[in-house]
Amino acid sequence: MKMEVQGLFNLPMEDKKKLWQKPNEVEGFGQAFVVSEEQKLNWGDRFYMMTLPTYLRNPHLSSNLPLTFRETLETYAVELKHLSMKILDHMAEALGMDPNDMRVLFEEGYQGIRMNYYPPCPQPELAIGLNSHSDTSGLTILLQVNEMEGLQIRNSGVWVPIKPLPNAFVINIGDFMEIISNGIYRSVEHRATVNSVKERLSVAAFYSPKLDGDMGPAPSLITPQTPPLFGRIGVADYFKGFYSRELRVKSYLDTLRLR
Predict the structure, then answer these.
(1) Do 141 and 205 contact (CB within 8 A), yes or no?
(2) Number of H helices, E strands in the chain
(3) How far apart are the C-alpha atoms of 121 and 124, rounded to whole Å?
(4) To 5 degrees, how large is the angle CA 116–CA 117–CA 123?
(5) 2-21: string of b/e by CB count within 10 Å (b at 16+)?
(6) What pLDDT digit, counting tens, does each position of 174-211 carry?
(7) Where's the Fe2OG dioxygenase domain (predicted)?
(8) Which of 87, 101, 133, 156 has the most CB atoms around it within 10 Å of its CB?
(9) Which of 152, 154, 162, 144 has the alpha carbon at shortest distance from 199?
(10) What is the pLDDT, as a whole number, of residue 36?
(11) What are the Cα distances from residue 102, in Å, to 178, 214, 220?
(12) Confidence of residue 30 (pLDDT cuts 50, 70, 90)
């Protein structure tokens, strides 16, 4: 997967154009969360694709991907789904949830994979690779491809760098899990920085509840002592609202808080 991602960003421009974003879409090469011509863009290139369930895949993108990349991505997506479900089962057990509450939402869950390329920046102090935000997923499984530092998480108001480890994943909790766990698990605010020396590549796999699902705090976690902290919303509606805004901290998740 690491080699294929590096090869994807090294494709000739005429091949990349076949994989370019179409108007009002987020899949393909391009930027997301662009809501005005005045906002500053992030210092980086991205390729995003819906990978599971298979019926949601963009046939135009799939047919234009290099064959070896397509085959590798297929295997990678399936293996990360299995890994995600194992982690979610353990999280449900730790929370004392009815395991069916988690499985009903995630068994046929939505998975998207985003490949990130952050080139060297001549003035890194004036740019950001990816704005501070929390992911909209249930889980994010991040592979740091070339072991170049850049990922940072906010901990007690301080930005802490996450050192890349060879052949290791970073597992991140997203907004959906904060909602489902009724605030017990908190989604993690993070950002990507850039440097002047070397490019940085990463692959983020986002695993979320099924798109036709309805999401809110798990029923098995709601008691008179622990009332719901969030309202209910359709998963597809949450995505629609999330992508309609500039990426900024937890601004969209906060709209669902009941108190």
Answers:
(1) yes
(2) 7, 12
(3) 5
(4) 125
(5) eebbeebbebeeeebeebeb
(6) 999 999 999 999 999 999 999 999 999 999 999 999 99
(7) 109-209
(8) 133
(9) 144
(10) 56
(11) 13, 12, 10
(12) confident
**Which tokens belong to 252?**
């969209």
pLDDT tens-digit readout, 138-147? 999 999 999 8
Let me know if 42 is exposed, middle or buried by CB neighbors in 10 A (0-12, 13-18, 19+). buried
Distance in angstroms (rounded) separating the CA atoms of residues 225 and 239: 30
Assessment of whether the complete model's pTM goes beyond 0.85: yes
Helix or strand (DSSP H, E) at 75: helix 67-95
Task: Report the C-alpha dihedral over residues 135, 242, 118, 174, rounded to 10 degrees.
Answer: 0
What is the phi/psi pair of residue 203, to 5°? Answer: -130, 120
Q: How far is CA 129 from CA 19, 115, 121, 144, 149, in A?
A: 21, 13, 10, 14, 12
Name the nearest CA neighbour of 47 among 79, 71, 18. Answer: 18
